[in-house]
Amino acid sequence: MSSYPVHTIESAPAQSKPVLRQLQQAFGLIPNVAATMAASPVLINGFIGLFERVHASSLTEPQIQTVLLTNAVTNASEWPVAFHTALALKQGVHPADVDAIRHGALPDDAGLAALSTLARTLIEKRGRLAEADQRRFLEAGFSSGQILEVIAVVAASTITNYTGSVTRPALEAQFEEFVWHAPMA
Question: Which of 10, 115, 140, 178 has its Cα between 20 and 30 A from that of 74?
Fold first, then answer.
């Protein structure tokens, strides 16, 4: 059982309340992983600031969700996999591409496959991209600036992934159909 409270707007520290209100407006709920982050105003405010900028990048929402889902699977973080599965489907990522990512494979869509590969490589190599890794991404039609944007997405999602893995929040009912369990090591 988790020892981390799942905060509400009423129970959260004062400096976390504005972010929780913002998330409530954006999603119609406060995601449980964010509700656990609220115990640390430093964490939740840093998280929301970075995520706002990620979603204002040159990447489309389906592209961002592809990176977020890939990161959650690569980091074996169960709550974020379910959450980003729902959001990826809502943003129009093809169900077969979502399923592929959830199973550690690449999407059929070439652009999404390039993003997924780059994200996984960044995590697995701890940011040490080889020239060939970068070249493959650029040859898929992306820019060097977008490599840096993917780094920002990876950084933002790492906050969610690590928080989800440490705090183990309950999965909200609306995401239960997308439950995912990390493969046994």
Answer: 140
